[in-house]
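Q: Protein A?
A:
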Amino acid sequence: MKTFILICLFIPSLCYCSYFCDQAFQTYGKTPIEEVLKEDVLKKVIDTINDPKSVQAVVDFHKQYDNLIQKIMKLEDKSVFQALPEEEGNFEKHYARIAAALESTPEEIKNYSLAAEHIKSLGMNELEELEKINGQNFHESAFEAVNDVPDFSGKPQLFFISKQNCSGCEIIKPAMAKLSHHLTEKADLFYVGSEVAKKLGINVFPTLYVRHEEGGMVNLLGGSSTEELWYELNKFIETRPIGQFTFFDARGELQNAQNYSEFIEYFMSKSH
């Protein structure tokens, strides 16, 4: 009889213990990063601002002016876009000088300029939306804002390179903030603007740059999901570079550019 009573008491206890362990595993069995990846912050932001009209306008703009945009990106001396004193108010002279530098026509430069202003206005509307979405303040991320290139501490350095009025930078910020706390053991994290970017030789935003003591891995920041971004960040931190501007080509093989412009040129040529 005693044995029967003990069995009756033991079985419910075992079931309760099993249930508790299952619950504990469900609660604590996943790593924190898996919980972060469950909420696709990047997709949430993109969906919120993804006005089809705005997107189509940008797509059409790039289709129409693709050749001109590539020439602009390759142009070493960007000062040609600044109006000279004698050109103030005289747009025809200004357009003619730019056209000569880009082997284009004043009419194309004028149309491009007007179209670019329209695209910029769309971008500013997006930024207003993003400021609302970015209620999760970026200063709460694990990135340290710096005004100069820091010394090495023994770990790779991950630079999130951004600048003001950059809608692409704002789109990626919430996901970068969430993921940053799970990268601190692997790398020192820095958030830098255009001045530090110049010192690193980078002039397109947003860009991911992972600096190792023997060189650096470079990538244009993007992606369609938080999980994809997490994969990219880890891949670049863990890859040993072969030069200052090492990157993965379209086949996933490591390549090295002589400078950042060469890397951008490769990227643009493969994006069509």
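Q: Protein B?
A:
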Amino acid sequence: MTLEARPQADRLVVAISSRTLFDLQESHELFEREGLDAYQRYQLAHEDDLLQPGMAFPLVRKLLNLNGLSTDAPRVEVILLSRNSSDTGIRIFNSIAHHGLEIVRAAFTNGSPTWPYVQSFGADLFLSSNAEDVGNALQAGIAAATILPGQAPAASKHDQLRIAFDGDAVIFSDEAEQVSKHEGLEAFHRSETERAHTPLSGGPFRSLLDKLHRLQAAFPIEDSPIRTALVTARSAPAHKRVILTLREWGIRLDEAFFLVAATRDRSCRRSAPTSSSTTSNVIASRPRSMSPPGMCRTVCRIVEQNMRTSVGAWL
């Protein structure tokens, strides 16, 4: 079945900005320094110059490669959203073709925000280097995250895509966090113990988790190209409600890390790419500034990067 013939509900759709897919730092710095006209002249003059992969390029390649691994698996589609004009965007499409990326749908907004088009394309995830676009998307209930612009990290030794999710306010709603925020950590643990058998509501990333689960289900567990994990500041006794909620949803996560705030914070600081790292990961977490007391969160970011082993392999 072709991509076009697949029902939308069966597809994982990821919308991504051009600055995260390719390294556009040089031209972006020119834009900030000399303005739009200089930027447009530069892009037209370099239309045939191929762009180098950006930070999200390895993630996009791994996602699209899933389409060739099983005819039974749901399809993955990547959509390009760019603040370029269609005229200056020719260089981007030239680079997409050169790198062999199966990206056929795109929107060029000529300087306008791109996030309003995410829902129009039915995207399950929006990745951008524009923090304002990401913030507006999150406020609209869209799973979105910021990727810092720059060159792609060194290629990993493994093709497996590893995806780690934060819990509260990410794959789950922030209902439990509100208890912690207004009543404190002790009240939070008491509430979670009392409501252990009451499933949590879904958060902005639940749809993405559902789609990934469907993709995983098409492959044997022992040989899956995708591996998922939960990395949360929850610890016992608050862990039980999370486990039972995922069971109620019918979602399987390969690994789960229930960490106290300080442990999780130290693990997060180990997340910087290193030349000796062995695998590529994606991290979905909540901004620290949006977190209540006692609940550790890191910068709201999904970053495809090489990581260390052990817990650091996920964080």
